[in-house]
Amino acid sequence: MPEAPVADWVTIPDLHRDPFPIYERLRAEGGVHWVPAVGRYLVTSYEAVHETELDQEVFSANERGSLQIRAMGHSMLRRDDPEHYLERKAWQPALRPGVVQRVWRSTFERNAERYLDELVEKGPGADLIWDFAAPYAAESLREIIGLHSARQEDLQRWSQTLIDATGNYADDPEVWAKGLRSFDEVDAALDEVLPWHAANPNESLLSQLLRIPDYEMPIERIRANVKMTIGGGLNEPRDALGVAAWALLTHPEQRRAVEADPSLWNAAFDETLRWVAPIGLYSRQVTRDTELAGVRLPAGARLGICILSANRDERVWEDAARFDVRREVKPHLAFGKGVHVCLGAWVARSEVADVALPMLFERLRGLDVVPDAPPTIAGWVFRGMTSLPVRWRSVAEPATVVAAPAAAEQAAPRIAIVGAGPAGCFTAQALRRRFPAAELEVLDGLPVPYGLVRSGVAADHPGTKSVARQFDRLFQHERVRFRGNVRVGVDVPLDALRGAYDAVVLATGMRADRPLDVPGDALEGVHGAGRITRLLNAHADEGEAPSLGERVVVVGHGNVAMDVVRLLARDAEGLGGTDVDDEAHERLAGAVRTIHVVGRSAPSAARFDPVMVRELAGLPGVAHRVHGAGLEGIEPGKDARADAVRGLVAEPSSQPRVEVHWWFGLSPARIEGDGRVERAVFRGADGEVELGADAIVTAVGFAADDECLVEPGAHASGRVEPGLYTAGWLRRGPRGTIPDQRTDARELARLIADDLEAGAIGAGRDGLPPVEGETDFEGWRRIDVREQLGAAPGRSRSKLRSRAALLEAARDATIPLPEVERLETATEGAGLPVTVLFGTESGGAELVADELRRGLAGRAAVEVVDIADAAPGDLDASRLHLLVCSTYGDGEVPTSARPFLRALVEERPDLRGVRFAAFGMGDRSYAKTYSRGSELVAEALAACGAERVGEYGRHDAGGPVPATEAALEWAEGVLAEAAAPVA
Ligand SMILES: Cc1cc2nc3c(=O)[nH]c(=O)nc-3n(C[C@H](O)[C@H](O)[C@H](O)COP(=O)(O)O)c2cc1C
């Protein structure tokens, strides 16, 4: 029998660029070749590929020295039956077609809507792959697997680096190093969620896996299979979506056909996979001497199964290189065949063909490629678009949005919101807007509201705490009630609550600190970061603060870790104007001289925001040392996190009071000590590192505690069932900032409106009768006054530190309360026509706008417009515009203001005759970018010819004056100046 012909003319770079002409020649020359550049036999004809897939005994998936096994561990993809069969069966329950339709399809719809919105916000020129397909596929996969401990961005990074390592035929050490880092990160993320899934059954893959009867998958196999699922499960839908979109955009006649006949979306999906299979090549190994396509293959021969080629075999498909959605249906090989046929096929089909493609083409009217930015495509092991910049003519509203007034007119449900933290309060705010007549009751286990705003946000970030002011206003509405000191699940069973309200929203968050899970993590002297933050915020249930001694090790590189390091490194003087608990701060931080802050990633992959590191770099009396950051290979200016870490040592501090040592690339191994902490031991690439410590603070995330009423993160849409909903961290898992909660709350209000409209929930229940010991909003106002009056010099308040003290103050009728006006009584005035145009991220500017409407009543006829709903062409020369806009990111406008700003800059409308005044909301601690967002809009307005009048107002969220007060004072000044010429 002849030996396989040698194709020494084939090179890997050519394959990567465009494998199709190479494959065409290989197929013409027989279909099985020895390719020295790849070190494998490439199998390229449909028939030969098919044959290998049907005989796993001869063509084994269990390749010795497989790159995939090295990169991801030994997954079922590299095993043969019966082992493969067992693992495959265990992986299946969450991926069955019925489950995909029943459970995941709505997830895909929600995610597609969300990432399309983000694409639209980026504006024409955005990249369909990286701004839509990739985050959409990653977030959907994250939810299906149940990896609540990770972000979709993590999955994208992991998938790419693991895939790169799997295809690392060139043996590049850098590629291996990145792959290994992701390998460890996936394992850590799994360690975090598996116990939780074990305790909380849900629909996710991990949870289902843990309850297969009579089978327990060993942890190493779970890890390997999850990595394989992240590798293939992300890029397959992403690349199918990207290539399908590109194909349709470049074949207008077929696009019209598909848009006219939605049943063709599935055909478009299959034809895309045939045309450019996302998983282009995988490996097999021959177990004994055999023959394939007429040539000899020796035992042990390594094969590359070329799906990209087999799917274009001209003996099976006519004119195979042509994309044609109407071609006769024949089985393509993109999902494999035989026992290894892809388990995620139903997921990919629903994700791409049922949801993302139709929604994309329906919403982005006139979608098109950008003429001067041609799309790029590459790869042969995995092939997909590497960029696809797009533009569009207009954007259609999502079909699922229910108009607010319709729902509002219909009914007035009574809704209980459990948890008065930011998620609960934003939910109440969004519900109040959607159902102005609804009765909303916000319950909290503490006698005080505001959850993490009061007890989780770092005391020295008062700007972030200022969001409480808008919640204070919320509770002044007649139909919004605060009911404190009521613990649902303890004082009132959840069932009783559900019986008393038309809908219940659980927003109780996640309170427990996730343990390190290494030997010694329960030794005395190990503390959770959440507890430390609560102590510094005088949380009523925490008791007395411990001393942390001289040497503290903080484990974790997230923003919570940064908060802890900063608060421990600051002295009492550095806390001027805050509401820190001085006694707790002195006990915790008084003796601290050395802080080690240790994380497992390199700086560029760390979870901290660079701005947090920059803030630490600027702390007086603090010196920084950086270990193992590996910054040499990263050019300055290319990576904000790496730059921030570099900045730590840019200006050495002389005679520092505290030294902070930053360690990168280290994972905790164990904590040692005789009865209490003496040292922490970490493992890194160069072996173990031992750090002496008097205390250890773990900042590696949060977990549910025993009182949690539902499994956090298990109901990602926010609906447990009609009538029971989740918000905040209970909905998403312990991720998300305060502004994120506001966005989510609006979505949840829409969902509840949908349920009401569909008749899934009703209206008219009576609510919960009084609960013994409950407190109300008046009670909180008394506590508030007492805490502010009792503030020590240089502090904004002194918080009452026990439940008893809080309850006593809440009931003390002798505490004088300032008058407040019920908000429903406010009336609009007549007079100068004024438009307040607000741009907000977390709601503060909206509150200011509402306040201006009330405060200016009588002197002006005020309308309030969200800048997100406005276009420059709406600006009217007969009105005075009051622009109230905050700043986000690094001196940027809020997300909601981006389209308006972009329209000003790109379209340059003629705004001569339009008059406006500007009020910037920001935080002075962002020195260089203080209130820059408002300036960007004001400058763009002026550049279009609009005239700015009056003083430029500014508000510092970290300062003592409420934004509403500052804004009203500013607006009165502006009006006085502006009124005369108009009159
Ligand atoms: C992530 C983040 C980034 C911010 N960046 C800036 C900034 O660069 N400059 C600034 O002046 N304020 C900045 N701020 C402060 C906000 O602008 C300020 O809190 C404002 O009052 C928020 O108003 P809003 O609720 O209407 O969005 C930032 C706040 C956050 C949470």
UniProtKB/TrEMBL annotation:
InterPro entries assigned to the protein according to its UniProt record, in alphabetical order: Cyt_P450, Cyt_P450_B, Cyt_P450_CS, Cyt_P450_sf, FAD/NAD-bd_sf, FAD/NAD-binding_dom, Flavodoxin/NO_synth, Flavoprotein-like_sf
Pfam families, sorted: Flavodoxin_1, p450, Pyr_redox_2
Membership in a protein family: Belongs to the cytochrome P450 family.
Name the UniProt record assigns to this protein: Flavodoxin-like domain-containing protein
Organism from which the protein derives: Agrococcus pavilionensis RW1
GO molecular function annotation: FMN binding; heme binding; iron ion binding; monooxygenase activity; oxidoreductase activity, acting on paired donors, with incorporation or reduction of molecular oxygen
Signal peptide: none
Source domain of life: Bacteria
Limits of the Flavodoxin-like domain: 834-975
